[in-house]
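[Discussion] Sanity-checking designs against the backbone

I'm trying to build intuition for which residues belong where. Below is a structure token string of 405 positions. I'd appreciate it if someone posts a full sequence so I can compare it with mine line by line.
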């Protein structure tokens, strides 16, 4: 392993952010280089004159095995002459210049009462037993020097303490997926992880380092979406391509929602399968119409369902220009998006919809839809999904039809 930070060529995410921040929160996937970034930051503040640094991990053993003696720990980076020594009896590391790093376990928040520091580094915050209490106690001990600061490194989990941190003033956020540090990992590790977990909520959290959460009020939950993934697709008696065209074309247009779905079965046993999310944007009319036509042919679909609130008959004309033979049915929204989506969300809750693949962007939109955090964003992918599954499963239009072979 390269011990020289400059030769290592750290990524932008691993370099301390500029500005007058109080907390640097580094979110990253497994093996993304979080520990190395934290250790190098500590080495930098020691070289800058810091004298007392708190080192906090889920347990004392984690402080020693990862933050201090690990391959990317404090005792294994930088020039040999400038590395600290570990004093096990006192649970601390001491640098040649006199600076001291004190080890603390997040299992004992009260152990941070009393001591004071210039800087602090907390590792794997999302795994701490009581993260909010430890962070609060730790921050109250940062009262030495001209500008005491805290760095927190962790693979994210949707815990309240972490969700509060990302919104706090004075917090600078960095993010790095595992892929950005692939050159320093065992050959094949990333490919194996992506093969096993890629696209899933667990993979996006543990490999991509993304904070996955269920906002309050959302119609879908991550648990529901994860549970609907299916490795096999049944024989489908009907397939549709649903399209939610953007309100305007051009480089600043919204996405065009394009979702392919099918269904099989009869009555209450009828099930829907989402086959593809082909949404994209910004989308010019000729481009999204061509993609709809391509999807129709690729999946041997029965019809195209197109929302016409924004363009009326022009939507049909644009689609027919791409393929004159497309069987287009225009639908008009007479109710709000949330009301239209509720029956479809209920189908997911009842286990009547499956996904034939991992559709990360669609899943994100689903799990934010209906929540205040979604703001005013246009849920184009969800709109297309709702039109497709409404046609297939809600009301009389969901009945199967004979398909000519």
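Best answer:
Here's mine. Compare freely.
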């Amino acid at each position: 392993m390269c011990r020289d930070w400059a030769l290592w060529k750290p990524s932008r995410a691993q370099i301390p952010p500029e500005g007058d921040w109080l907390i640097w929160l580094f979110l990253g996937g497994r093996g993304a280089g979080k520990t190395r970034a934290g250790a190098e930051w500590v080495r930098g503040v020691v070289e800058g004159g810091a004298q007392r640094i708190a080192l906090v991990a889920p347990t004392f053993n984690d402080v020693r095995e990862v933050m201090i003696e690990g391959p990317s720990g404090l005792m294994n980076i930088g020039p040999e002459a400038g590395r600290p020594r570990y004093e096990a009896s006192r649970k601390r590391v001491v640098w040649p210049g006199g600076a001291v790093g004190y080890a603390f376990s997040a299992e004992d928040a009260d152990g941070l009462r009393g001591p004071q520091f210039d800087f602090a580094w907390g590792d794997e915050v999302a795994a701490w037993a009581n993260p909010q209490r430890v962070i609060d106690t730790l921050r109250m001990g940062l009262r030495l020097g001209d500008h005491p600061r805290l760095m927190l490194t962790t693979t994210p989990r949707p815990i309240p303490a972490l969700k509060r941190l990302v919104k706090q003033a004075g917090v600078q956020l960095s993010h790095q997926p595992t892929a950005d540090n692939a050159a320093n990992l065992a050959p094949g590790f990333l490919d194996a992880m992506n093969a096993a977990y890629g696209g899933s909520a667990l993979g996006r959290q543990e490999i991509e380092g993304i904070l996955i959460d269920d906002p309050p009020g959302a119609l879908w939950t991550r648990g529901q979406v994860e549970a609907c993934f299916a490795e096999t697709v049944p024989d489908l008696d009907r397939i549709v391509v649903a399209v939610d065209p953007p309100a305007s074309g051009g480089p600043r247009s919204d996405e065009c929602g394009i979702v392919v779905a099918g269904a099989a079965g009869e009555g209450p046993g009828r099930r829907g399968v989402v086959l593809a999310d082909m949404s994209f944007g910004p989308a010019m009319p000729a481009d999204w119409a061509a993609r709809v036509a391509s999807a129709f042919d690729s999946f041997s679909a029965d019809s195209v369902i197109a929302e016409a609130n924004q363009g009326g008959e022009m939507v049909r004309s644009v689609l027919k220009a791409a393929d004159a033979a497309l069987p287009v049915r225009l639908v008009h929204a007479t109710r709000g998006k949330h009301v239209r989506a509720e029956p479809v969300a209920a189908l997911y809750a009842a286990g009547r919809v499956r996904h034939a693949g991992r559709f990360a962007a669609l899943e994100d939109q689903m799990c934010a839809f209906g929540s205040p955090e979604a703001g005013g964003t246009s849920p184009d992918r969800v709109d297309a999904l709702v039109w497709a599954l409404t046609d297939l499963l809600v009301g009389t239009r969901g009945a199967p039809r004979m398909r000519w072979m």
